[in-house]
Fold Solute carrier family 35 member D2.
Amino acid sequence: VRLSLWCVTMSAKACAAEADHHSGFLKFFSALFYAGSSFLVTVVNKTVLTGFRFPSYMCLGIGQMITTLVVLYAAKTSNAVHFQDFDKSILFKIFPLPLLYVGNHVTGLASTKKLSLPMFTVLRKFTILMTMILEVYILRKTFPKRLVYSVLAIVLGAMVAACSDLAFDMEGYTFILLNDAFTAASSVYTKKKLDTEGLGKYGVLFYNALIIVVPTLLASAFTGDLHEAVAFKDWVKATFIFCFLVSCFMGFVLMYSIVLCSHYNSALTTTVVGAIKNIAVAYIGIFVGGDYLFSWTNFLGLSICMSGGLVYSYLTFNSTSARNTDGPQELKVHITEDSIRKYSTN
């Protein structure tokens, strides 16, 4: 009996170890996928909105929504993915994600157009602080002091860099801070909605885009934004069309990567991954893009911000790995006295 119990215990431990291995791989892969997608979509959007001077960030967002609908509908029709068909319950299940989604899209594209790449990524660091606050009040989470201090260091560095920005744009700064708030709220609520019956990650993506694409299109037409986009002179250029289509597709990829990362990780972990990506984008943007005005104070703020981001990322991933909060819990095998007797008689 003892030998049998030992075998069962070792088998349970092996299963738990294998589950941890697969879960760890999915966490890392989804985080890496999100970081790469976020980096690429920022560069492509910057090329379309600033490089080609495309006048409508709202229409670019509409293109990304339409791409999401087309891709997911084709995948659902071919049975490649599965999610609930539309009915009245969808609106209650998914609210308030559509509002947060459109706010995140519009303010994100607007701030990309108004700000240089380094300042865009620096001010995005406030998303981390906002995510922590929302997780405390909505998800009732607590954070160790070391983690809080690293977040404060990130915010301090962002403030130093922003105050010395020689290309100060109040409208751009307003958009990026609103984008931070929408991103934080969207990340926290996405994590909650992924467990909603009938939705899943594909349903969340599809119905978000479906619910908001028509109101966004009407708003664009009412404000004259759509007319400016249609009258844009570079529609005859193959290079612009290619970059626009790539931006639309990458918008879908980015949203999918966010949902995927949130599915396998926490909302805070997803935000941390974005911070890691921003470290690379900020320093690359100093040398690439041509719209960064260098100053030592600005560079110092960038360095403080990025150093805090590295410490924050290390503390978060290390504590997550140690506590295994996002992964499978310990596999317990319950063996009753009756099962022991049954086994001994055999």
Summary: Confidence is low (pLDDT under 50) at residues 8-22, 324-346. Residues 2-51 form the longest helix (50 residues).
